[in-house]
Write a structure and sequence with these properties.
Layout (H helix, E strand, L loop, with lengths): L1 H24 L1 H7 L8 H24 L4 H23 L3 H24 L3
Helix pairs in contact: 1-3, 1-5, 3-4, 4-5
Length: 122
């Protein structure tokens, strides 16, 4: 189970790092690729991007270094919360394909949080 959790952590980190950089620091690119970034203020988009980047770092770095490894579970839980909020936002906008993607990331993030807290703690 430890290997499966590591694989999920790396995949989540990669996905959220790319999304975070795009949302936070390449906002024109984000607006060209998706509809929803134009509906929020640039500052909100930056906060979302930074949250995703911090979550990406958080699901890897504490576990990898062994320094405060319990932060890995909290980072994964934070990413799950971000995805829950994103699903609600997309639901209000009736962007159902985005909701499905958000829910998949939510489930994977929640599984990593639970897995690193209960199943295979660090």
């Amino acid at each position: 189970m430890n290997i499966a959790l590591w694989v999920l952590q790396v995949l989540l980190a990669a996905a959220f790092l790319v999304a975070g950089v795009t949302h936070g620091f390449q906002q024109e690119r984000a607006k060209a690729q998706m509809k929803w970034p134009a509906a929020v203020q640039p500052g909100v988009l930056t906060v979302i991007g930074v949250s995703e980047i911090l979550g990406a770092v958080g699901v890897i770095l504490p576990a990898l270094t062994g320094i405060l490894p319990w932060l890995t579970s909290l980072a994964a839980l934070g990413l799950a919360i971000v995805m829950l909020l994103a699903a609600g936002f997309h639901g209000m906008r009736r962007e159902y394909s985005s909701i499905l993607f958000n829910l998949v990331l939510l489930v994977l993030s929640a599984f990593v949080a639970y897995g690193r807290w209960v199943i295979a703690p660090l």
